[in-house]
Input
Amino acid sequence: MTRSGVLDELKSLAPLRQQLREWLQHNLPADWKQRMLGASEAEYVEFQKSWFRILRDGGYVAPHWPVKWGGAGFSFAEQIVLYEELARAGAPRLIIYFISLHHTPATLLEWGTPEQRQRYLPAILTGEEIWCQGFSEPNAGSDLASLRTRAERNGDHYVVNGQKTWSSSAQVARYCLLLARTDPAAPKHQGISYFILDLNSPGVTRRPIKMLTGGAHFNEIFLDNVRIPAENLVGKENDGWAVAQSTLASERGLTALEFAERMRTGFQLLLADAKAPAPWGGRLIDDAEIRRRLIDIHTRIETLRILINNLLTQVLKGTGSGVEPSIIKVYHSELLRDLTGLAVEIGGVAAQYVQSALMGGGYETGYWMHDYLYSWACTIAGGSNEIQRNIIAEKGLGLPREPRAGVGR
Output
């Protein structure tokens, strides 16, 4: 479908948009942000599960999934409308279900066996089986192919030893999408295999990592002689790098669109703060410098939307250089940092307090110091901005790779 085709379809979806607005009006939990302030992990997880069930019963929890597997089978344009309306209504994101709803189905639908799909996909839609991702390691974060976790075949099992880190929601998950090296003699992008790990297996230890915000969304996972059944291998042995590309590609496109819409909502909160009476009289928005910075943020948000719309068009056409997601990732994360940083300045002393906000993170809570501190994680998560710039330079601009110290050109 062409871009004009998508725009034409979006125009024809006004009834769906109205249906979603009415549904959200009746089903969106009232005052959910306030209720989650200071909530325990157990309370937050239960809230996420309840919102999952509400979306599922409404037919909106898996719009991108095939109908065969319990999804809504929405068209691309219908998904755009849904994510726009969820963001504009300020609906909670299903933070602990991101891997479950996006990475796991994208991987299993392309690479999984029929038995794996039947076992795991329907169970996700119950809302009880949460997934996480075990890719990054202490010495293999941005350079993922340097991972050292080992998996050795032993009869009908693989025995796994190693450590993973920065695993989102692992502390509440049941399953993990795991990368491990099965051929240490192969080049680093080869010899890697992809597994489904049951986190309740003997030898698995999970340790939450406390963040600046006080939350513990990320985790370390330690694997000590963990036995994974051979039937939990996804794809062929030593073909894990190719499988992982399907997992990572599922982050592109519509999730970025949702982030941009939520950023617009955040800007409206920022604008309201700037228009409010200042303690000394007058309003901050009447200051020329504040107005200039607000205009800059607003312009960059609209530019982000254009970048994302262009990416979605290229996804539909099957074109593009492949670096557009990296460009958007850098642009979005640095814009988010600047928006929340300005909000902290405008909010004054009252904005300096770090609320015990929504367990599990998030960066559009409206509690500005929390959001500002969390925004720095977004410049690292999903591949650090430094690595993204290298990708843009090498793959997009064709610039030569900078040699390491002591290595000839």
